Amino acid sequence: MLKKLHVKNFAIIDDISLDLEPGFTVLTGQTGAGKSLIIDSIGLLIGDRADSGQIRYGETKATILGIFDSTKEINDYLFNLGIEISNTITIQREITKTKSTAKINGSVVNIQMLKGLGSLLADIHTQNDTIRLINKDNYLNLIDPENDKKFNDLLAKYVIDYNNYHASLDEYRQILKSSDTEKDQLEYYEFIYKEISSLDLHKNEDIELEEKISKLKNFDKIFESLKKAINYLDNEYFNLDNVYKALEDINSIKEFDKNYNETASKLSEGYYNLDDALHDLKDYIKGLDYDQDELNNAQERLQIIDNLKLKYHHDLDGIIKYAADLKLKIDLVINYDGLLKDKYEALSLKFKDLIRSGKVLSEYRQKRALIISQNIEQMLKELEINHAKFEISFVNKDFNDPLQSEVFMPSGIDEVDFLISTNLGEPLQSLVKIASGGEMSRIMLAFKAYFAHESKLSLMVFDEIDTGVSGSVAFEIAKKIKQIANECQVIAITHLPQVASSADNQLYIYKEEVDGRTLTRVNKMNKSDRILQIAKMISGEKVSSFALEQAKDLLK
Known about the structure:
The chain is α/β, with parallel strands linked by helices. Helix content is 57%, strand content 17%. It has 19 helices and 15 strands.
């Protein structure tokens, strides 16, 4: 449950702190006083998107802090994130003009982590949620569980098969799409490919040719320099034999004085390095061979490569790749029928895999949907739709054509409709066609009541879920919310005295002007306060004695 809520500089809220109780807490008060802002602040704590426009005018940041009771499941989730665990969870959101941050028990987290925690903590019904019932695209989200491991595993398997199928379908369509164009270009492709492939180019060949040309052009200079270098290292005035003799003499005395060790090492290193260098120089000069034809051939070959670079606007690596791509296109045209057949067979296998995983997921959904619909139907009767019949209908689909991708969706193969009959003897019809606003509210409440029991959430929040009802129906809605509050904490906004009077706690939200600014204020009401407030909800600001008596009766 939510134990404490602190909101600062959030819209018209300057600074409020609420200590919340278990059971059913109702928020009542003037329209525009800030009731929905309190709901919005709770939404931010469980991962709703922040907006810099929510910062109170004249302030630089808004802060929302909430303290919740924890559970083993929640602690396991936090442990896996590497977040400190305890008996309570402190969540903080901070909104500035440029960014928003979230913290759980002092650790900074991203919004996806916060949403994951939020799905274990609370469910918030906003006024827009009931509107979702008129759009069939939202129905799967309403019936799919959030924390059901088996369902999540089945969905994950389906998503893998879905992605594999679409990758295979894209390959097939690409071949199909490109075939006509490639056929028209075949002669052109073959001409270019023959021109490039006949040269037998290899990677970095242009660099190798440039080095060879430079070496041959500078043959005389290279030869003379090598010859001089050898002569400097091996002549009548200096040769390596003398260095070696010096090394032997130093080695013979180094045992008498350790200072000679370093000198011996230097002489040894110098001797062997110079000896290696001299051998290299002699090998180089032996290997020198000037060949004018070789130079001419290298220059011609490099010129051909340079011409190709200009012609095709690629470097050498790009030209080699271009030729390889052309070969694939040529093979595609020449072997088109066989390649298309292979791709279609591969696509058919992916298609069958996807159908299989989709049907397994659908069977699991349909079993859940039957249980859900039976419970919803019973709850609707309790909410005074006495002859209610409710069914979650699954659209039958044919899976005959691997190219028929529209039968698959990222969430599965299922398209569902909510069918309802609210009057005796009337057939089931689509909910969007026949349900009134008041019926929509009761249907949504029935869903929320069912999932409150199933999900074991510690908090449910309702923003005017009782819209469009009155009289005896309002009493039944109050009773249903009270039942939900027996299983988890409930916070609700209402304008109905029947609902307000059934709450365990009532907070009155009102506006106050201070120094020319509007502020939201919250008053935790005692019993006499509640009698007066509920009487006003019955009769308006001018409270009659009859309204007071009714309020007292409602609160008994």
